[in-house]
Design a protein that fits this description.
With 229 residues, the protein is an alpha/beta fold. It has helices at 15-24, 47-59, 75-89, 107-111, 126-137, 141-161, 173-187, 197-201, 214-226; strands at residues 3-8, 95-99, 118-123, 166-168. It has one domain (3-226): 3-Layer(aba) Sandwich (Rossmann fold).
Length: 229
């Protein structure tokens, strides 16, 4: 039986970097991009998971960029979830990884099926994430910070319920590498390769501003306190 490793983190916060590193170390991830080789770099969301998460969010009156206050789902949603979970558990590898940032908003839904997932989290400076959302999704900075707060509150909440490793995408490359090794060891993944590490980290934009809303800064400080790097 394969253990499902779930990368938890909001959009533009290092989830793809973390997924690629895990993938290089024998945790297979399935790309959503059709007609592309399995080794392609880029987003690693599983298409069925993304569609299911979008459907549950819409049923709850929201979307990935408009987090609903409460999560609701139907029997059909639950059946689709259980089918996906069964497919993951039947994987040939010891671990089977997947990530979709929306999952942070839907953890109650994914855990309701009685499954136990192995989590590894990632976060990034609030302004860096908001700036990236502005550049790639044209989301205003204020809204980007609100999204950062919603997603990372959920990350902290889950960490408080069941401790799991969290890495900081703001860390210096050497510190990030050490943190990834610690995190991987905690979930039982052996490190064999770091080929994508430096190329993925070169694409970061360093942000050091603490000119943030108090609540956002408070959550960021708490994440830094529990991070392994």
């Amino acid at each position: 039986m394969s253990v499902g490793v779930v990368v938890l983190g909001m959009h533009r916060s290092g989830t793809s970097c973390l997924s690629m590193l895990l993938r290089e170390n024998h945790v297979p991830f399935i790309s959503t991009r059709r007609k592309m080789p399995a080794s392609i770099t880029g987003t690693q969301e599983r298409r069925l998971i993304v569609h299911l998460n979008d459907d549950v969010l819409a049923h709850s009156g929201g979307s990935w960029d408009r987090p609903p206050k409460t999560i609701k789902w139907t029997m059909d949603h639950a059946a689709r979830r259980d089918t996906i979970a069964d497919q993951i558990s039947m994987g040939r590898s010891r671990f089977s990884g997947w990530k979709d940032p929306r999952t942070l908003l839907l953890l109650d839904f994914w855990e309701d099926g009685g499954r136990r997932w192995s989590y590894i989290g990632t976060f990034r400076h609030p302004m860096a994430s908001a700036t990236s959302l502005l550049e790639y999704k044209h989301i205003p900075t204020e809204q980007g910070l609100e999204l950062w707060l919603a997603y990372n509150r959920a990350l902290l909440k889950k960490h408080g319920e069941s401790s799991f490793p969290i890495v900081s995408f703001d860390a210096k490359p050497t510190d990030y590498l050490r943190g990834f090794q610690v995190a991987s060891n905690e979930i039982g993944v052996q490190i064999h390769s770091m080929l994508s590490f430096l190329s993925r980290m070169r694409h970061r934009t360093a942000v050091h501003s603490n000119d943030l809303p108090d609540e956002v800064l408070h959550v960021y400080d708490r994440l830094k306190a529990v991070s392994v790097c």
